[in-house]
Amino acid sequence: MRRTDNERKIVLWLLTVLLLAVLPVYAQKLVFTPNWTAQAQFAGFYVAQEKGFYREAGVDVEIVHPSVSEPVMSRIIGGKCQVTMLMLPQAMEIIDRGVPLVNILQTSMNNGLMIISRRGKNPLTQKGARMGTWQAGSGLLGICMSNKENLDYEWVRYAANMNLFVTGALDGTLAMSYNEYYQLLQAGMPLDDKTVYRFCDHGYNIQDDGVYMTKAYYVRHRDQARRFADATRKGWEWAASHQEETLDIVMKYVRGNRVGTNRVLQELMLKEILRLQIDRESKKREFRLRRDMVEKASRLMHEQGVLEREVKYEELIAR
Fold first, then answer.
1. What element of type H or E holds 313?
2. Which residues is 132 bridged to in the sheet?
3. CA separation for the pair 128, 150 (Å, rounded)
4. Cα 118 → chain centroid
5. Cα 135 from chain centroid (whole Å)
6. Bridge partner residues of 130 (DSSP)
7. What counts of helices (H) and strands (E) characterise the chain?
8. Reported pTM
9. What does residue 288 show for φ and ψ, rounded to 5 degrees?
10. How far apart are CA 2 and CA 73, in angstroms?
11. Which residues 6+ apart lie within 8 Å of 270 measured at CB?
12. Angle formed at CA 221 by CA 218 and CA 224, multiple of 5 degrees
C-alpha cells in the first residue's frame, strides 16, 4: 500500500522522535576560567568535571586557568571564556565599566580577606604603611576599607607570591584566609590575633567567590547556565562529604598545571573554603548571593570612588 505524503511525513517525524529519545544528550561547549591558578579553591569545579556531573548535565566543560599576562577579567571581557569565577567587588567593578554580568551561582557566603602586619602591630595602627596587594582586582575591598578608615596605606602591587612581604620590604599585606595565610604559617612566620585583621569580623563580611557570565551570553543560554550551575553545586556538595578523594582530584589538577604547592596546604585550603561556604546565620551552604552584602559592597565602593554608581542587586541576579 502506497503512503500519502502526509503519512510519510508522520512516519519520518515519529522516527526522528524515537532517534532523539535514544541518543545521548548533546553536550554544549563551555569554557570556564577560575580566578587563579589550580588549587583547592576550585575543588567543586574539578569534582564536577572528574565525576562526570557536567557530562551528565549535558555540558561539555573545558577548564582553562588564567595567567599573569591574561587575567580572568581580560578573558571574560574578551569573550575567551563563557563563565568565570569572580569576587563580588570584582564583578561590580566590571559592571561599572559597562560590561553587564549575572551571577548564576554563589560559592562563598563569607569573606576570607585579611591584612597581615610584618611589624608585630595591629594593622589599623600602621597609618601610611607600605601594604602589598595583588596585581589583579582581588584587593578592591582592602583598598576601600583602608580609605574609609583613613589609614593612608601606600599600596604596592605584586603579581603573586609573598616574597616582598617575607623579606621585610613591606609593612603588611593583604592575604586570603585559605591561601597566603597558610603559606606564611608554613614558612614559619608567627601570626596572631594582634597582627591579623580579618575583614569578616570587623563589619566587612562581603561575599567572595561567585560564578558569573556576561548578561549577553546568559540571555542566549539560560538553560546551559542553569545546568552548569546545578552540576557545579553538586560538585561542591560531593567535595564537602568526600574530602580525601577531592584532594586527590585537586592534586591531579595542581600537577597538571605545574603549580608549586603541597597536599597539606591544599587540605587546609579546602577546609577553609568549605567553611566560608556556610552562611553565618543559617549555618547552611546556601549558594546564593545575599542582597544585604551586595548593597553593603556597592555602597562602600561607591563612597570610596571605586564605582561611579551603585550596582544594584537586581542587576546581578540571573533571571
1. helix 313-316
2. 156, 173
3. 9
4. 28
5. 16
6. 154
7. 14, 10
8. 0.89
9. -135, 150
10. 63
11. 40, 43, 239, 243, 246, 247, 250
12. 110
